[in-house]
C-alpha cells in the first residue's frame, strides 16, 4: 500500500468508522464489543484495500462485514449457557439515554436486531437492508414485522401502518 | 406515540451516545498493518538467512570443520531465557479494568509471536501480540491495541520456575499490563 492508498483508506476510515460502530452498537448492545467488531471489519477492509478501494463505496463493504459479524456475535452470545454468562464479570457501559429501547431491542433475535437498526437508525430502504443481510426483501419485511410487534408490546406503544 | 416513532427517537439517542476515538483506532489499525508487514519481511529474511547458512555448510565443509566443537556464542553474550510454551494464570479484577478478571493463557511461540487467550468476558483485542526475549528481559506489546494504546512496550524480567514463569516489571508505562502480567503466577500447561 503506497502513501496515496493509505491516505484514501484513512479518509474512508474517518468518514465511516463512527457511523458503522453506532449501528453495530445498536445490534450488540455493548460499546466495547461494537468498537472491536467495527475495528476488525475495517482491518479486513485494509487487508483487501487493493480490491475494495475500486468499489464505489468502500465503507459500505466494511459496514456489511461489520453488521454480519455483529449478528454472528449476538448469535454466539445467545447460545452460551445462562450460568456461564452470569459467572463472567460484565464490562460496565455508561448509562444509555434510552435504556428502555435498548432493553427491548436486546430481547430480539439477532437478524431482527440488525433489521431494526438498519431500518430505524440508518433509515435504509428494505432493498438495501436485504442486500446487507444477504436475505430476500420479503424476509427483511418479515423480520421487521415480527420485531415491531414484539417491540410494541415491550415498549407499550402502538403499531401503526406498515414498513415500506 | 407509535412504536416506529419511539424506535427512531430512542435508537438515535442511544446510537449517538457512542463516540469512538476514531483517530486512536485508526492509528492502531495502521500500526497492526505495519507490524504484520514487518513480521512477513522478517520471516522472509529469516528464511533467506537460513538458506544462505545451509549453503555455506554444504559448500565450505572443510573451512567450518576446523571450528567444530568451538563455542558458537561469544564469551560475553548472555543466553536468553527460553520462554516458549503455554502458561495459564488467574488474573484478579482491576478497579480501572474490571473486564481483565479471569483465566488467561499465554502461548509464547517461535518468531516472537505471543498467542493470548483472554477470559470470555474480556472485550479487548488480543490478536497480533508480539514479544522478544534478550537475556532475562522480555519485551511485549500486549494490549497495545486498546488498554495500552499509544504507550511504549512493557519490559519485564523473566524467570523460569519449577512450575512455570514469573514476570517482574522492569519498565512499563501501562498500568493494566503490569497488573495482568506481574503479580500473576504463570503455570506451565501442556
Plain-language structure description:
The complex is a heterodimer of chains A (164) and B (190). Chain A has 164 residues and is mainly α. Chain A has helices spanning 3-28, 31-47, 49-52, 58-79, 82-87, 99-106, 110-121, 126-133, 137-155. The termini of chain A are far apart. Helix content of chain B is 34%, strand content 25%. Chain B has two domains: 3-64; 85-189. Chain B has 190 residues and is an alpha+beta fold. In chain B, a hairpin with a 4-residue loop joins β2 (102-108) and β3. Chains A and B meet through α1, α2, α6, α7 and α9 of A and α1 and α2 of B.
Mean pLDDT of chain A, rounded to whole units? 89
Helix count of chain B equals 4
- The number of E-state strands of chain B comes to 8
Oligomeric state of this protein: heterodimer
Number of alpha- plus pi-helical segments of chain A: 9
| Biggest sheet strand line-up of chain B | 1-2-3-4-5-6-7-8
Order of helices and strands of chain B: HHHEEEEEEEHE
Count interface residues per chain for the largest interface: A-B, 53 and 40 residues
The tally of strands of chain A reads: 0
Structural class by secondary-structure content of chain B: alpha+beta
- Gyration radius of chain A, to the nearest Å? 17 Å
What proportion of the residues of chain B form beta strands (DSSP E)? 25-35%
Helix residue percentage of chain A: over 70%
Q: Can you summarize the main beta sheet of chain A?
A: none
Number of domains of chain B: 2
Overall outline of chain A: globular
CA-CA gap between termini of chain B: 60 Å
Task: Write a concise synopsis of the structure shown.
Chain A is mostly helical.
Give the secondary structure arrangement, pairings included:
The complex is a heterodimer of chains A (164) and B (190).
Chain A: H1 3-28, H2 31-47, H3 49-52, H4 58-79, H5 82-87, H6 99-106, H7 110-121, H8 126-133, H9 137-155
Helix pairs in contact in A: 1-2, 1-4, 1-7, 2-4, 4-7, 6-9, 7-9, 8-9
Chain B: H1 3-16, H2 22-59, H3 61-65, E1 85-91, E2 102-108, E3 113-117, E4 129-134, E5 137-140, E6 154-160, E7 164-171, H4 175-181, E8 186-189
